Protein backbone atom coordinates (compact mmCIF):
# COMPACT_ATOMS: atom_id res chain seq x y z
CA UNK A 1 0.00 0.00 0.00
CA UNK A 2 1.43 3.37 -1.00
CA UNK A 3 2.04 6.24 1.40
CA UNK A 4 -0.42 8.48 -0.43
CA UNK A 5 -3.22 5.93 0.01
CA UNK A 6 -2.47 5.60 3.72
CA UNK A 7 -2.65 9.37 4.13
CA UNK A 8 -5.91 9.47 2.19
CA UNK A 9 -7.51 6.80 4.40
CA UNK A 10 -6.29 8.51 7.56
CA UNK A 11 -7.81 11.74 6.31
CA UNK A 12 -11.09 9.95 5.56
CA UNK A 13 -11.24 8.53 9.09
CA UNK A 14 -10.60 11.94 10.62
CA UNK A 15 -13.27 13.46 8.38
CA UNK A 16 -15.81 10.80 9.39
CA UNK A 17 -15.13 11.41 13.08
CA UNK A 18 -15.66 15.10 12.52
CA UNK A 19 -18.96 14.46 10.68
CA UNK A 20 -20.15 12.18 13.47
CA UNK A 21 -19.36 14.74 16.18
CA UNK A 22 -21.14 17.43 14.18
CA UNK A 23 -24.20 15.20 13.79
CA UNK A 24 -24.24 14.43 17.51
CA UNK A 25 -23.87 18.08 18.47
CA UNK A 26 -26.58 19.16 16.04
CA UNK A 27 -29.03 16.55 17.36
CA UNK A 28 -28.50 17.63 20.96
CA UNK A 29 -28.77 21.29 19.95
CA UNK A 30 -32.14 20.76 18.26
CA UNK A 31 -33.52 18.33 20.86
CA UNK A 32 -31.98 18.95 24.29
CA UNK A 33 -32.11 16.02 26.69
CA UNK A 34 -31.34 13.18 24.27
CA UNK A 35 -29.39 10.23 25.63
CA UNK A 36 -26.60 8.40 23.86
CA UNK A 37 -29.06 5.64 22.92
CA UNK A 38 -31.46 8.22 21.46
CA UNK A 39 -28.68 9.70 19.38
CA UNK A 40 -27.55 6.29 18.10
CA UNK A 41 -31.11 5.56 16.96
CA UNK A 42 -31.79 8.94 15.35
CA UNK A 43 -28.37 9.35 13.72
CA UNK A 44 -28.17 5.66 12.73
CA UNK A 45 -24.73 5.36 14.28
CA UNK A 46 -23.31 2.54 16.37
CA UNK A 47 -23.38 2.92 20.16
CA UNK A 48 -19.58 2.80 20.19
CA UNK A 49 -19.33 5.63 17.67
CA UNK A 50 -21.82 7.75 19.62
CA UNK A 51 -20.09 7.00 22.91
CA UNK A 52 -16.70 8.09 21.57
CA UNK A 53 -18.16 11.19 19.92
CA UNK A 54 -20.09 12.27 23.01
CA UNK A 55 -17.07 11.78 25.24
CA UNK A 56 -14.97 13.92 22.92
CA UNK A 57 -17.59 16.69 22.94
CA UNK A 58 -17.83 16.50 26.74
CA UNK A 59 -14.06 16.79 27.05
CA UNK A 60 -14.00 19.77 24.69
CA UNK A 61 -16.73 21.60 26.59
CA UNK A 62 -19.41 21.50 23.90
CA UNK A 63 -21.79 19.22 25.84
CA UNK A 64 -22.71 18.56 29.45
CA UNK A 65 -24.45 15.61 31.07
CA UNK A 66 -27.71 16.04 32.94
CA UNK A 67 -30.24 13.90 34.73
CA UNK A 68 -30.74 10.15 34.29
CA UNK A 69 -33.50 9.36 31.80
CA UNK A 70 -35.85 6.39 32.14
CA UNK A 71 -35.24 3.55 29.74
CA UNK A 72 -37.77 1.28 28.03
CA UNK A 73 -35.47 -1.71 28.39
CA UNK A 74 -31.77 -1.11 28.85
CA UNK A 75 -29.88 0.89 31.41
CA UNK A 76 -31.00 4.48 32.04
CA UNK A 77 -28.94 7.02 30.12
CA UNK A 78 -27.95 10.55 31.01
CA UNK A 79 -29.59 13.44 29.23
CA UNK A 80 -27.22 15.50 27.13
CA UNK A 81 -27.39 19.27 26.73
CA UNK A 82 -25.30 22.01 25.19
CA UNK A 83 -22.72 23.37 27.62
CA UNK A 84 -23.91 26.93 28.22
CA UNK A 85 -21.00 27.93 30.46
CA UNK A 86 -17.85 27.79 28.33
CA UNK A 87 -18.36 29.52 24.95
CA UNK A 88 -19.73 32.80 23.68
CA UNK A 89 -21.00 33.86 20.26
CA UNK A 90 -20.91 37.53 19.24
CA UNK A 91 -23.43 39.13 16.91
CA UNK A 92 -23.95 42.71 15.77
CA UNK A 93 -26.36 44.53 13.51
CA UNK A 94 -25.39 47.69 11.69
CA UNK A 95 -28.70 49.50 11.34
CA UNK A 96 -29.44 52.77 9.59
CA UNK A 97 -29.97 54.55 12.90
CA UNK A 98 -28.07 52.39 15.36
CA UNK A 99 -25.76 49.55 16.29
CA UNK A 100 -27.08 46.52 18.16
CA UNK A 101 -24.73 44.04 19.81
CA UNK A 102 -25.26 40.73 21.62
CA UNK A 103 -23.19 38.04 23.29
CA UNK A 104 -24.96 34.65 23.22
CA UNK A 105 -24.60 31.16 24.59
CA UNK A 106 -24.64 28.12 22.30
CA UNK A 107 -28.43 27.88 22.72
CA UNK A 108 -28.97 31.52 21.82
CA UNK A 109 -29.50 32.90 25.32
CA UNK A 110 -28.42 36.54 25.30
CA UNK A 111 -25.86 37.16 28.05
CA UNK A 112 -25.22 40.85 27.33
CA UNK A 113 -26.67 43.29 24.82
CA UNK A 114 -26.14 46.91 23.84
CA UNK A 115 -28.05 49.32 21.58
CA UNK A 116 -26.21 52.43 20.42
CA UNK A 117 -28.25 55.09 18.62
CA UNK A 118 -26.44 57.07 15.94
CA UNK A 119 -27.07 59.22 12.89
CA UNK A 120 -26.06 57.54 9.59
CA UNK A 121 -22.37 58.00 8.82
CA UNK A 122 -19.53 56.45 6.80
CA UNK A 123 -18.50 52.76 6.84
CA UNK A 124 -15.13 53.68 8.35
CA UNK A 125 -16.57 55.66 11.24
CA UNK A 126 -19.19 52.99 11.87
CA UNK A 127 -16.57 50.21 11.90
CA UNK A 128 -14.42 52.10 14.40
CA UNK A 129 -17.35 52.71 16.75
CA UNK A 130 -18.56 49.12 16.45
CA UNK A 131 -15.08 47.85 17.25
CA UNK A 132 -15.00 49.95 20.43
CA UNK A 133 -18.45 48.75 21.49
CA UNK A 134 -17.63 45.08 20.85
CA UNK A 135 -14.41 45.38 22.81
CA UNK A 136 -16.35 46.84 25.74
CA UNK A 137 -19.00 44.12 25.44
CA UNK A 138 -16.35 41.41 25.71
CA UNK A 139 -15.14 42.90 28.98
CA UNK A 140 -18.55 42.45 30.63
CA UNK A 141 -18.52 39.94 33.50
CA UNK A 142 -20.79 37.30 31.89
CA UNK A 143 -18.60 37.27 28.76
CA UNK A 144 -14.94 37.88 29.57
CA UNK A 145 -14.21 34.43 31.05
CA UNK A 146 -15.67 32.58 28.04
CA UNK A 147 -13.99 31.42 24.85
CA UNK A 148 -15.20 33.47 21.87
CA UNK A 149 -16.22 31.34 18.89
CA UNK A 150 -16.54 34.23 16.48
CA UNK A 151 -18.48 37.25 15.28
CA UNK A 152 -21.38 37.66 12.86
CA UNK A 153 -22.36 41.05 11.41
CA UNK A 154 -25.83 41.80 9.99
CA UNK A 155 -25.99 44.66 7.47
CA UNK A 156 -28.88 46.61 5.87
CA UNK A 157 -28.51 45.56 2.24
CA UNK A 158 -27.77 42.67 -0.13
CA UNK A 159 -24.49 40.82 0.35
CA UNK A 160 -22.59 39.50 -2.67
CA UNK A 161 -22.89 35.70 -2.93
CA UNK A 162 -19.74 33.84 -1.90
CA UNK A 163 -17.78 36.91 -0.79
CA UNK A 164 -18.10 39.32 2.14
CA UNK A 165 -19.08 42.48 0.26
CA UNK A 166 -22.06 44.66 1.06
CA UNK A 167 -23.28 45.47 -2.44
CA UNK A 168 -25.58 48.35 -1.54
CA UNK A 169 -27.19 49.84 1.55
CA UNK A 170 -29.48 52.38 -0.11
CA UNK A 171 -30.69 53.94 3.13
CA UNK A 172 -27.08 54.54 4.20
CA UNK A 173 -25.66 55.43 0.80
CA UNK A 174 -23.02 52.68 1.11
CA UNK A 175 -21.94 50.68 -1.94
CA UNK A 176 -19.46 47.77 -2.34
CA UNK A 177 -18.24 47.89 1.27
CA UNK A 178 -15.91 45.20 2.65
CA UNK A 179 -17.07 45.84 6.18
CA UNK A 180 -15.20 42.99 7.89
CA UNK A 181 -11.92 44.34 6.52
CA UNK A 182 -12.75 47.77 7.97
CA UNK A 183 -13.61 46.22 11.33
CA UNK A 184 -10.67 43.83 11.79
CA UNK A 185 -8.02 46.47 12.65
CA UNK A 186 -10.22 47.57 15.57
CA UNK A 187 -10.53 44.01 16.95
CA UNK A 188 -7.11 42.46 16.24
CA UNK A 189 -7.35 39.86 19.01
CA UNK A 190 -10.89 38.61 18.36
CA UNK A 191 -10.66 34.91 17.55
CA UNK A 192 -12.90 32.49 15.72
CA UNK A 193 -15.17 32.68 12.70
CA UNK A 194 -16.01 36.06 11.16
CA UNK A 195 -18.93 36.44 8.76
CA UNK A 196 -21.46 38.97 7.50
CA UNK A 197 -24.93 38.78 5.97
CA UNK A 198 -28.02 40.79 5.19
CA UNK A 199 -29.90 41.71 8.39
CA UNK A 200 -33.25 40.14 7.41
CA UNK A 201 -31.52 36.92 6.32
CA UNK A 202 -29.58 36.78 9.60
CA UNK A 203 -32.79 37.35 11.57
CA UNK A 204 -34.60 34.61 9.64
CA UNK A 205 -31.71 32.20 10.19
CA UNK A 206 -31.64 32.82 13.93
CA UNK A 207 -35.40 32.48 14.28
CA UNK A 208 -35.20 28.99 12.77
CA UNK A 209 -31.79 27.79 13.96
CA UNK A 210 -32.19 28.63 17.64
CA UNK A 211 -35.65 27.01 17.67
CA UNK A 212 -35.94 23.69 19.51
CA UNK A 213 -38.78 21.20 19.53
CA UNK A 214 -41.43 22.03 16.92
CA UNK A 215 -39.24 23.43 14.11
CA UNK A 216 -41.05 24.67 10.97
CA UNK A 217 -39.93 23.38 7.58
CA UNK A 218 -39.38 26.93 6.34
CA UNK A 219 -39.63 30.45 7.70
CA UNK A 220 -39.76 33.95 6.27
CA UNK A 221 -38.75 36.87 8.43
CA UNK A 222 -39.98 40.31 7.40
CA UNK A 223 -37.99 43.27 8.72
CA UNK A 224 -40.09 46.44 8.84
CA UNK A 225 -37.88 49.31 9.95
CA UNK A 226 -36.11 52.16 8.23
CA UNK A 227 -36.30 49.95 5.15
CA UNK A 228 -38.27 46.80 4.37
CA UNK A 229 -36.55 43.48 3.77
CA UNK A 230 -37.11 39.77 4.19
CA UNK A 231 -35.19 36.55 4.48
CA UNK A 232 -36.26 32.96 3.89
CA UNK A 233 -34.65 29.85 5.37
CA UNK A 234 -35.54 26.18 4.86
CA UNK A 235 -34.55 22.96 6.63
CA UNK A 236 -33.81 22.16 10.26
CA UNK A 237 -30.39 20.44 10.11
CA UNK A 238 -28.47 23.30 8.49
CA UNK A 239 -31.08 25.83 7.32
CA UNK A 240 -30.48 27.04 3.78
CA UNK A 241 -30.85 30.75 3.13
CA UNK A 242 -32.46 31.79 -0.15
CA UNK A 243 -30.05 34.30 -1.72
CA UNK A 244 -30.46 34.58 -5.49
CA UNK A 245 -27.72 34.89 -8.09
CA UNK A 246 -26.86 38.49 -7.03
CA UNK A 247 -27.89 38.29 -3.38
CA UNK A 248 -31.15 40.16 -4.06
CA UNK A 249 -33.58 37.48 -2.89
CA UNK A 250 -35.82 38.94 -0.20
CA UNK A 251 -35.37 42.60 -1.15
CA UNK A 252 -39.12 43.09 -1.00
CA UNK A 253 -38.78 46.77 -0.13
CA UNK A 254 -37.64 47.34 -3.70
CA UNK A 255 -40.39 45.41 -5.42
CA UNK A 256 -42.55 47.91 -7.30
CA UNK A 257 -46.07 48.35 -5.92
CA UNK A 258 -46.89 51.66 -7.59
CA UNK A 259 -45.48 52.06 -11.12
CA UNK A 260 -44.58 55.69 -11.78
CA UNK A 261 -44.81 56.46 -8.06
CA UNK A 262 -42.41 58.33 -5.82
CA UNK A 263 -38.66 57.94 -6.24
CA UNK A 264 -37.02 55.42 -3.89
CA UNK A 265 -33.54 55.67 -2.39
CA UNK A 266 -32.50 52.88 -4.78
CA UNK A 267 -33.30 55.08 -7.81
CA UNK A 268 -36.42 53.27 -8.99
CA UNK A 269 -39.94 54.64 -8.71
CA UNK A 270 -42.88 53.24 -6.77
CA UNK A 271 -40.92 50.75 -4.65
CA UNK A 272 -42.70 49.31 -1.62
CA UNK A 273 -40.43 51.40 0.63
CA UNK A 274 -41.98 54.58 -0.77
CA UNK A 275 -45.27 53.37 0.77
CA UNK A 276 -44.20 51.52 3.91
CA UNK A 277 -40.84 52.15 5.58
CA UNK A 278 -39.44 54.22 8.38
CA UNK A 279 -37.96 56.74 5.97
CA UNK A 280 -41.20 57.20 3.98
CA UNK A 281 -43.19 57.70 7.19
CA UNK A 282 -40.62 60.30 8.30
CA UNK A 283 -40.98 62.10 4.99
CA UNK A 284 -44.77 62.07 5.09
CA UNK A 285 -44.97 63.40 8.66
CA UNK A 286 -41.94 65.72 8.70
CA UNK A 287 -39.93 63.82 11.32
CA UNK A 288 -36.23 64.70 11.27
CA UNK A 289 -33.52 62.10 10.71
CA UNK A 290 -31.95 62.66 14.12
CA UNK A 291 -35.24 62.06 15.96
CA UNK A 292 -36.25 58.59 17.12
CA UNK A 293 -39.16 57.68 14.85
CA UNK A 294 -41.06 55.50 17.31
CA UNK A 295 -40.64 57.87 20.26
CA UNK A 296 -41.81 60.74 18.06
CA UNK A 297 -44.89 58.92 16.77
CA UNK A 298 -46.26 57.11 19.82
CA UNK A 299 -47.63 60.31 21.46
CA UNK A 300 -49.21 61.33 18.13
CA UNK A 301 -51.16 58.19 17.21
CA UNK A 302 -54.51 59.99 17.67
CA UNK A 303 -53.65 62.70 15.12
CA UNK A 304 -55.62 62.29 11.84
CA UNK A 305 -52.60 62.74 9.53
CA UNK A 306 -50.63 60.13 11.51
CA UNK A 307 -53.54 57.69 11.37
CA UNK A 308 -53.95 58.13 7.61
CA UNK A 309 -50.21 57.70 6.99
CA UNK A 310 -49.96 54.56 9.12
CA UNK A 311 -53.12 53.04 7.65
CA UNK A 312 -51.80 53.45 4.11
CA UNK A 313 -48.42 52.04 5.17
CA UNK A 314 -50.18 49.11 6.86
CA UNK A 315 -52.19 48.33 3.73
CA UNK A 316 -48.99 48.27 1.67
CA UNK A 317 -47.37 46.00 4.26
CA UNK A 318 -50.35 43.65 4.01
CA UNK A 319 -49.85 43.47 0.22
CA UNK A 320 -46.19 42.57 0.75
CA UNK A 321 -47.08 39.84 3.25
CA UNK A 322 -49.60 38.35 0.82
CA UNK A 323 -47.08 38.51 -2.02
CA UNK A 324 -44.54 36.64 0.11
CA UNK A 325 -47.16 34.04 0.98
CA UNK A 326 -47.91 33.46 -2.71
CA UNK A 327 -44.32 33.56 -3.99
CA UNK A 328 -42.45 31.83 -1.14
CA UNK A 329 -45.26 29.95 0.67
CA UNK A 330 -43.28 29.37 3.89
CA UNK A 331 -44.47 27.30 6.85
CA UNK A 332 -44.35 30.39 9.04
CA UNK A 333 -44.02 34.15 8.63
CA UNK A 334 -42.41 36.26 11.34
CA UNK A 335 -42.88 40.03 11.25
CA UNK A 336 -40.38 42.15 13.14
CA UNK A 337 -38.55 45.44 12.93
CA UNK A 338 -38.99 48.73 14.75
CA UNK A 339 -42.26 49.62 12.98
CA UNK A 340 -44.11 46.81 14.80
CA UNK A 341 -43.87 48.97 17.94
CA UNK A 342 -46.42 51.31 16.38
CA UNK A 343 -49.05 48.66 17.05
CA UNK A 344 -52.60 48.57 15.76
CA UNK A 345 -52.60 51.74 13.60
CA UNK A 346 -50.00 50.10 11.32
CA UNK A 347 -50.38 46.38 12.02
CA UNK A 348 -54.18 46.25 12.00
CA UNK A 349 -54.60 47.03 8.28
CA UNK A 350 -51.65 44.78 7.38
CA UNK A 351 -52.84 41.73 9.30
CA UNK A 352 -56.47 42.21 8.31
CA UNK A 353 -55.55 42.29 4.62
CA UNK A 354 -53.34 39.22 4.92
CA UNK A 355 -55.92 37.21 6.85
CA UNK A 356 -58.74 38.14 4.46
CA UNK A 357 -56.83 37.23 1.31
CA UNK A 358 -54.31 34.48 2.06
CA UNK A 359 -56.66 31.60 1.24
CA UNK A 360 -58.34 32.95 -1.90
CA UNK A 361 -55.97 31.23 -4.30
CA UNK A 362 -56.40 27.66 -3.02
CA UNK A 363 -59.70 28.06 -1.21
CA UNK A 364 -58.31 26.19 1.80
CA UNK A 365 -59.03 26.92 5.44
CA UNK A 366 -55.44 26.19 6.50
CA UNK A 367 -53.79 29.33 7.81
CA UNK A 368 -50.08 30.04 7.49
CA UNK A 369 -49.02 31.24 10.94
CA UNK A 370 -47.95 34.88 11.06
CA UNK A 371 -46.20 35.89 14.26
CA UNK A 372 -45.45 39.48 15.20
CA UNK A 373 -42.33 40.16 17.28
CA UNK A 374 -43.09 43.24 19.37
CA UNK A 375 -39.46 43.83 20.39
CA UNK A 376 -37.04 42.71 17.70
CA UNK A 377 -34.22 45.06 18.70
CA UNK A 378 -31.57 42.33 18.82
CA UNK A 379 -33.13 39.70 16.56
CA UNK A 380 -30.76 40.26 13.60
CA UNK A 381 -27.66 40.46 15.81
CA UNK A 382 -28.68 37.22 17.55
CA UNK A 383 -29.30 35.65 14.15
CA UNK A 384 -25.79 36.61 13.00
CA UNK A 385 -24.44 34.87 16.12
CA UNK A 386 -26.48 31.79 15.16
CA UNK A 387 -24.84 31.83 11.73
CA UNK A 388 -21.43 31.74 13.41
CA UNK A 389 -22.41 28.65 15.40
CA UNK A 390 -23.82 26.89 12.33
CA UNK A 391 -20.68 27.69 10.36
CA UNK A 392 -18.57 26.07 13.07
CA UNK A 393 -20.72 22.99 13.62
CA UNK A 394 -21.11 22.26 9.92
CA UNK A 395 -17.78 23.62 8.71
CA UNK A 396 -14.64 21.78 7.70
CA UNK A 397 -12.49 22.54 10.76
CA UNK A 398 -12.37 20.02 13.58
CA UNK A 399 -14.47 21.07 16.58
CA UNK A 400 -11.69 20.25 18.99
CA UNK A 401 -8.64 21.35 17.05
CA UNK A 402 -10.11 24.75 16.21
CA UNK A 403 -10.88 25.98 19.70
CA UNK A 404 -8.99 23.96 22.28
Main sheet summary = 5 strands, mixed
Identify the overall geometry: globular
Strand content: 15-25%
Mean pLDDT across the residues is 92
> Got a strand count?
14
Order of helices and strands: HHHEEEEEHHEEEHEHEEEHHHEHEHH
- Extract low-pLDDT stretches: 1-10
- Span between termini: 34 Å
Helix content: 25-40%
Class from secondary-structure proportions: alpha/beta
Number of helices: 13
Gyration radius over CA: 23 Å
How do the strands line up in the largest sheet? Answer: 5-4-3-6-9
InterPro entries: ATPase_NBD, ROK, WH-like_DNA-bd_sf, WH_DNA-bd_sf
Protein name: ROK family protein
Organism: Billgrantia desiderata
Describe the structure.
It is a single chain. The strands form 4 sheets. A 5-stranded mixed beta sheet has the order 5-4-3-6-9, with helices on both faces. The protein has a 5-stranded mixed beta sheet with strand order 12-11-10-13-14, with helices on both faces. Strands 1-2 form a two-stranded antiparallel ribbon. It is 39% helix and 21% strand. The radius of gyration is 23 Å and the shape is globular. The chain is built from 13 helices and 14 strands. With 404 residues, it is of the alpha/beta class. The relative contact order is 0.13. The model is unreliable at 1-10 (pLDDT under 50). Helix 10 runs parallel beside helix 11 (344-357).
Amino acid sequence: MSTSNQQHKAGDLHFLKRLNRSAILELVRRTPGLTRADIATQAQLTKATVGAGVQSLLNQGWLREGELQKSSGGRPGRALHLNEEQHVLLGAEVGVHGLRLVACTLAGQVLVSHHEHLVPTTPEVTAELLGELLHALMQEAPVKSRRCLGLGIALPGPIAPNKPVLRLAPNLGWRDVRFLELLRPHLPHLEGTWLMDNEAKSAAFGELYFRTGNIPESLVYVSAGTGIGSGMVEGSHLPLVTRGIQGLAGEIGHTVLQPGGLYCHCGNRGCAETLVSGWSIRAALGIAEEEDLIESLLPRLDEPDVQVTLRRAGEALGVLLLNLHHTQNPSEIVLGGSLTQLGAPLLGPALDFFKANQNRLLGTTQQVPLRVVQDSTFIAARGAAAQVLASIIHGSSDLGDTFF
